[in-house]
Protein backbone atom coordinates (compact mmCIF):
# COMPACT_ATOMS: atom_id res chain seq x y z
CA UNK A 1 0.00 0.00 0.00
CA UNK A 2 1.45 3.39 -1.02
CA UNK A 3 0.04 5.17 2.02
CA UNK A 4 1.66 2.75 4.46
CA UNK A 5 4.95 3.02 2.59
CA UNK A 6 4.82 6.82 2.69
CA UNK A 7 4.11 6.78 6.42
CA UNK A 8 7.04 4.43 6.96
CA UNK A 9 9.42 6.65 4.98
CA UNK A 10 8.29 9.78 6.80
CA UNK A 11 8.71 8.15 10.21
CA UNK A 12 12.18 6.97 9.26
CA UNK A 13 13.14 10.49 8.13
CA UNK A 14 11.88 12.02 11.35
CA UNK A 15 13.64 9.47 13.52
CA UNK A 16 16.98 9.53 11.68
CA UNK A 17 17.38 13.11 10.52
CA UNK A 18 15.09 15.35 12.50
CA UNK A 19 15.49 13.73 15.91
CA UNK A 20 19.09 12.50 15.79
CA UNK A 21 21.07 14.72 13.42
CA UNK A 22 19.38 18.12 13.38
CA UNK A 23 21.03 20.62 15.66
CA UNK A 24 18.88 22.02 18.46
CA UNK A 25 19.44 25.45 19.93
CA UNK A 26 18.31 24.29 23.38
CA UNK A 27 21.09 21.68 23.35
CA UNK A 28 23.80 24.21 22.56
CA UNK A 29 23.44 23.78 18.78
CA UNK A 30 24.51 20.15 18.79
CA UNK A 31 22.54 17.13 17.69
CA UNK A 32 20.60 15.09 20.23
CA UNK A 33 22.96 12.16 19.59
CA UNK A 34 26.01 14.32 20.35
CA UNK A 35 24.29 15.76 23.42
CA UNK A 36 23.48 12.28 24.71
CA UNK A 37 27.08 11.14 24.16
CA UNK A 38 28.43 14.24 25.92
CA UNK A 39 26.03 13.69 28.82
CA UNK A 40 27.10 10.07 29.27
CA UNK A 41 30.77 11.05 29.22
CA UNK A 42 30.15 13.62 31.95
CA UNK A 43 28.24 11.17 34.17
CA UNK A 44 30.61 8.22 33.73
| Number of helices, counting only DSSP H or I runs of 4 residues or more | 2
**What percentage of residues falls in helices of 4 or more residues?**
over 70%
**Spatial separation of the terminal alpha carbons:** 46 Å
- Give, in order, the helices and strands: HH
Count all strands and give the number.
0
How big a fraction of the residues is strand?
under 5%
Instruction: Calculate Rg over CA atoms.
Output: 14 Å
Low-confidence stretches: none
Give the count of structural domains. Answer: 1
Multimeric organization: single chain
Mean pLDDT: 88
Briefly summarize what is shown.
The protein is mostly helical.
Describe what you observe in this structure.
InterPro entries: Integrase_cat-core (IPR001584). It is elongated and about 45 Å long. The longest helix is centred in the first third of the chain and has 20 residues, at 2-21. Helix content is 73%, strand content 0%. The protein has one domain (2-43). 0% of the residues are buried. By secondary structure, the chain is mainly alpha-helical. It has helices spanning 2-21, 32-43. The protein starts with a helix and ends with a helix. The mean pLDDT is 88.
Please give the structural blueprint:
Layout: H1 2-21, H2 32-43
Observed structural traits:
Integrase_cat-core; mainly alpha; 2 helices; about 75% helix; single chain; about 45 residues; IS3 family transposase
Amino acid sequence: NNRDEAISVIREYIEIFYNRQRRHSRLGNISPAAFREKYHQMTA
